[in-house]
Design a protein that fits this description.
95 residues, HU Protein, Chain A, 2 domains, 3 helices, elongated, IHF-like_DNA-bd_dom_sf, Hist_DNA-bd
């Protein structure tokens, strides 16, 4: 699945729910995940993985066009840690 619509179609078919209800669920899940991450809380998706927020320190970098040294500000980034079942499936076992 490469698009949101493909995800909605597959979930709708698998669960027997309407596409509208499935789309509402997918949208709500995304909204809830953004809300939790914005508050610094982790999001656990059973059998899929975990989303957390990681803090990156400020550091020095270089402008690739000029070579000039620049400071890259500290920031927070979302990090996904896949569940063991997902890692196994990616390696061709445990489907």
């Amino acid at each position: 699945m490469r698009t949101k619509q493909e995800l909605i179609d597959a979930l709708s078919e698998r669960t027997g729910q309407s596409k509208k209800d499935t789309a509402d669920f997918v949208d709500s899940l995304g909204h809830l995940a953004r809300e939790c991450l914005a508050e610094g809380r982790e999001v656990i998706l059973p059998a899929i993985g975990k989303l957390t927020v990681k803090e990156k320190k400020a550091r020095m970098g270089r402008n690739p066009q000029t070579g000039e040294a620049i400071e890259i500000a500290a920031r927070k980034v979302p990090v996904f840690s896949p569940a063991k079942a997902i890692k196994d499936a990616a390696n061709g076992s445990g489907i």
